[in-house]
Amino acid sequence: MRVPMIAGNWKMNTTIREATALVSEMCPLLNQIENVDKVICPPFISLAVVKELIRGSSVKLGAQNVYFEEEGAYTGEISPLMLANLCEFVIIGHSERRQYFNETGEMVNKKILAALRAGLKPILCIGERLEENEAGRTEEIVTEQLRSSLAGVDYPRSLIIAYEPVWAIGTGKAATGQQANETIGFIRGKIAKLYSDEIAQDMRLLYGGSVTADNIAEFVQQPEIDGALVGGASLKADQFLSIVKQTSEIRSRLSEES
Ligand code: PEP
Q1: 95 lines ligand 1 (CB under 6 A)
Q2: Ligand 1 within 6 A of CB of 232
Q3: CA-CA distance, 212 to 147, in Å (whole number)?
Q4: CB 37 within 8 A of CB 60
Q5: Which of 34, 46, 48, 71 has its CA 20 to 30 A from that of 85?
Q6: Ligand 1 centroid – CA 165 distance (Å)
Q7: How does DSSP classify residue 151?
Q8: DSSP state of 46
Q9: Dist. CA 189–CA 192, nearest whole Å
Q10: Helix H or strand E segment including 115
Q11: pLDDT for 152-190, tens place per residue?
Q12: pTM passes above 0.85
């Protein structure tokens, strides 16, 4: 069975001091929860500090973005090589980057390829906008995003995909467990066609979009959903802990039953 993952995307929140306080509060408690990969993705400036704070624990670290060149005159950017010694995961193609920073499918693809080359594990975000959802184009959109993001990726072993409908991110209007399960099942089918059944069955596919301690159970009890990418609720220690704890309990129960 796939190990579930809960990843917290802190977005552009927390100073170094605030990040230190939040991790110091959460890490000892997160460390005790088993059978879930617990990943936190603070802003770049806090990665080194957080890396030290989580050392020796089971909590893992991710970045929120990466550039696709290794080094050079790209003012303000961070390269995969810089991240490789610092963290294990990197979020790529988040809809906020596509929307506010004009990231195209081609750029997302270059970032995925560069991250994999550097040994980072990408968390690729895909998902449709509200008008696309309302027009019944969800499957078409995620198919196109998968195709463009994964061009030239021969063997996406360490890749994680987060299905994040744009209309659900930060809106408090989450998809239903059933809706998310259907689309994630569809994405798994596409991965099987692009690669193989084995790769599709091994790959972790997350849901993201207004996940809270009150609705996480609805998602992680679905057979296709392997956890969540959590934004707002990952900044509140009690919420994030509860999300991770419920995921561990539900998935352990389901694996005993199967
Ligand atoms: C996200 O940032 O990926 C996200 C899902 O945000 P939120 O949980 O706040 O909707």
Answers
A1: no
A2: yes
A3: 30
A4: yes
A5: 34
A6: 10
A7: T
A8: G
A9: 5
A10: helix 105-117
A11: 999 898 999 999 999 999 999 999 999 999 999 999 999
A12: yes
